[in-house]
Amino acid sequence: MSHLTHRQLYLQRLGYDTPPPPTLQTLQDLQLRHVCTFAFESLSTLLHLPVPIDLPSVEQKVLLDGRGGYCYELNQMFLALLLSLGFEARGITGRVVMGGPADAHTARTHRLSLVTLNGERYITDVGFGGMVPSSPLLLDTEAVQATAHEPYRLTLDGQGSYTMWAQVAQQWRGLYVFDLQVQADIDYTIGNWYVSTHPDSPFLGQLKVARLAPGKRYTLANANYAVHSLDRPSEKRTLGSADELLQVLQETFGLCLSQLPQLREALDEMTDRHLDHEKPVPTP
User: Fold this and answer.
1) With bands split at pLDDT 50, 70 and 90, how would you rate the model's confidence at 4?
2) Which of 28, 42, 66, 206 is the most core-located residue (most Cβ within 10 A)?
3) Which band of pLDDT confidence, cut at 50, 70 and 90, is reported for residue 169?
4) Does residue 23 contact residue 189 with C-beta atoms inside 8 Å?
């Protein structure tokens, strides 16, 4: 299948019959539609499978095989689409700090994109899991910015590093730190190699899945499933069997699992471990 046909298929999945013009409205629509259509998922790293990030492999996996991916896949595919539509854009990288101090100096393992429109610069990101921003963010302001979901903001330090923040339950949480350094393919290759193979990677042997819908975020962290809504408390439950997990992966996250025959066994082991961990410790 030619790259042009891949683009047509990609746009069809996002609800376009013809290529849209390279405008801010298009960028906003594309980002929201993407995070509501394609799941962030780590099935390959759960199963200790390779994660090739050359564009043809990514397009095969996401557009043809019915899978999702993580930042090195989804943001690369999205950037290629933006460039094909005539946007001025390039890839950049960042350090994830979510769940820890916002000034932590973590590994450079997140990929996102910088877009310039009419002289103004925007950050666009479709590959940050459960807290992915659903709208592009204006770079050169520290004002709170509305998105199609929660409010976000960016801050800049004196060394050229920006921090992405999201407002969750009335609290500002740092998500990742990034700069505008030009990246080469080898930079993504090294980051992806770490994320997909290093023993300290939070993805290796772990299941992380997310997809957005209007007003909602669906997340799965191993056996812990949650539906986060903008207008009501989150619903959380533990999925206790491989059957439950497979059903959620297919029905909620829209994933095609037919090419992963080893998945059920991995999910069985994961739920068994979770149940063992949940058992009360007997007292003497």
Assistant:
1) low
2) 42
3) confident
4) no
User: Which residues does 254 contact at the CB level (< 8 Å), separation at least 6?
Assistant: 37, 39, 66, 211
Strands of the sheet containing 235-238, edge to edge, are 40-41, 208-213, 216-221, 224-229, 235-238
Give the amino acid at 160: G
pTM (2 d.p.): 0.94
Task: Kindly tell me the burial class for residue 55, based on how many C-beta atoms sit within 10 Å of its own C-beta (0-12, 13-18, 19 or more).
Answer: middle
How do residues 258-278 score in pLDDT, each as one tens digit? 999 999 999 999 998 876 665
Residue 32: strand, helix, or coil = helix
The DSSP-derived string for 153-187 is EEEE-TTS-EEEEEEETTEEEEEEEE------HHH
Contact 168, 228 (CB under 8 A): no
At residue 90, the 3 state secondary structure works out as strand
Q: Cβ neighbours of residue 53 under 8 Å, at least 6 residues apart?
A: 72, 73, 76, 188, 189, 192
